[in-house]
Amino acid sequence: MAILRGDHPPGAPLPREAELMARFEVSRTVLREALRTLTSKGLIESRPKVGTRVRPRDAWNLLDADMLEWYSRVAPPLQFALKLQEMREMIEPYAAALAAGNHEAPACERLTRAHRAMVDAQNVDEWVRADLDFHLCVLAACSNELLIPLGALIERTLEGQLRLNAKRAEVYNASLAEHTAVFDAIVARDAAAARRAMADLLGVTRERIEG
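That's the GntR domain protein sequence above. Prediction below.
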């Protein structure tokens, strides 16, 4: 997180092993394992006679669940929320259209349960769990196995955004009607309506973020 925050800018060397071991109170074995993890995520690189340095930002693998969560903790909250929102706006309306055209019975049943849980939610926690499951179900209903890992990738950060949106609304389930429009269009296999309904829902989300 210190690297993502900019404490160690791209090209800068990391402190020596002894300093890092003392700072984090870990053994050399643990430290080296941690450095291998950061290397695999594109944050750092080690070279003989040069040491360990931070890689350029464009080498960082932010499409990694751990990296995305770490980044969400250190990035300016509004900036991160808008970046995640932009990603959702590019993907989810089309995913809803795909779900409408391609969903199979098991996926539709899971989406129905998620929508019912939203209808029945009695508090913010129940609503957020159901809301998150609803959006993950839409991705799963696309019948495109490449989109399912996307849900797993953004799940933790999306949950945080959904919780924030629920708390900013007049009531936690203020967007139930918009979710129901998405649900009805998918079940009816109306791809165009599903795309529009999801875009409308995300428009409400953006208004809450920017408000």
